[in-house]
Write a structure and sequence with these properties.
Shape: globular
Oligomer: single chain
Number of helices: 12
Order of helices and strands: HHHHHHHHEEHHHH
Number of strands: 2
Largest sheet: 2 strands, antiparallel
Length: 251
């Protein structure tokens, strides 16, 4: 079994991934491995210059969201190698393409597609920092909880409602968020493992720390906030399709 197969097997066991996600992971990593092979290198003796060269080369070929997904997948492969002592260092690449440039329709602010978001979530490991990042990311993207309220979640309120919803008291107002059974389960597990003696769920971890952590995945809050939302063009396309089906759009 080669190292990529071993890594994928590890992911499947730990994260119960869909086959489509597994294939996407393998494709992203194999593209990178092919690049290294063309440079007469492999994953074990690659270097930072080659890592940066690869991501510079592909940055303009993909949307920002797709690029971030590929970066996350490959970097987490490196993390696996580091954890298992196949290598002794991992590398970083700073995204240079700005997501808020108002230059053209093609370069408008990017959002994750569903499969890209799921690939990012599934790429996060089970260490404390990434468990916390995964939970907060899901709160932002799926439950649509504002960043300011995430850091105001108190343990006593979670216990009161048995982790089935999130209640935040702010500025003399009560804000209620519905959450999925899966997020509820992750919340409870996080509390029992990391926050049982804290007042606030995420303790002293604050917005600035989150922003810094997201940057490691070439992500930002705005991208996460808009996760899973169809862009205007997609929505209009679907509306036109419906109109044509019922005859309104016919010439």
């Amino acid at each position: 079994m080669d190292i990529l197969e071993k890594y994928i097997e590890n992911l499947v066991i730990k994260k119960n991934l869909l086959q489509s996600t597994v294939e996407a992971y393998k494709l992203d990593i194999n593209e990178y491995l092919s690049f290294l092979e063309n440079k007469e290198k492999d994953i074990f003796n690659s270097n930072e210059d080659l890592f940066i060269e690869y991501f510079k080369e592909i940055e303009d070929k993909y949307s920002v969201a797709s690029f971030k997904r590929k970066y996350s997948v490959i970097r987490n492969f490196y993390k696996f190698l580091l954890k298992n002592r196949y290598i002794d260092k991992i590398f970083e690449y700073k995204l240079t393409k700005k997501t808020n440039d108002k230059v053209s329709k093609e370069n408008r602010t990017e959002v994750f597609k569903k499969n890209e978001y799921e690939a990012y979530i599934n790429s996060l490991s089970d260490n404390f920092n990434e468990v916390r990042l995964k939970l907060i990311s899901r709160m932002i993207a799926e439950a649509k909880i504002s960043l300011i309220n995430i850091f105001e979640i108190e343990i006593k309120d979670l216990l009161k409602y048995n982790f089935e919803k999130i209640i935040v008291f702010r500025n003399s107002k009560i804000v209620t968020y519905k959450i999925s059974a899966e997020i509820s389960k992750e919340l409870k597990e996080y509390y029992e493992k990391y926050a049982i003696e804290k007042r606030y769920l995420f303790g002293s971890y604050k917005k600035s720390s989150l922003i810094s952590d997201l940057k490691r995945y070439n992500l930002d809050f705005k991208t996460l906030k808009n996760c899973l939302q169809e862009d205007e063009e997609e929505i209009n396309k679907k509306i036109r399709e419906i109109y044509f089906k019922i005859g309104i759009g016919d010439n």
